[in-house]
Specification:
- The chain is of the alpha/beta class.
- It is 40% helix and 16% strand.
- The protein contains four helices and five strands, in the order ββαβαβαβα.
- Strands 1-2-3-4-5 form a five-stranded mixed beta sheet, with helices on both faces.
- α1 packs parallel to α2.
- The protein is globular, with a radius of gyration of 14 Å.
- The model has no long low-confidence stretch (mean pLDDT 91).
Length: 125
Amino acid sequence: MKFSVDKHDKYVTLKLKEPRFTNDNAPGLKSELYLLNAEGYKNIIVDLSHVKECNDAQDLSCLLVGDRLCKSVNGLFIVTGINDEIAPIIELSNIFHSVTFVNTLEEATDFIFMDELEKEFRGDK
């Protein structure tokens, strides 16, 4: 599975660089999410902008794993880069009820920084 990882102080971005999201590459993404969480990253952004095809909603279940991992450490899991080709399968899967989706990577990073500021303001850190 091809992907890139861009680590920052407050978050990490994982960009899947595959044209298809399948049961062949979903386990690799799931493993990387576990590794990033074990490294202490509580805010994870997954960028699916290169993905043009996903035929099985079951393949998306690895995103639920990332969401659960981040929530367990009071973090955020955000998915961005959803295009018109894979949006219907995401809607069909009802995964959007659990996972946070935003349109762009910039929105995702803004979301994380706003959440971190809010936690600091409330004294949740």
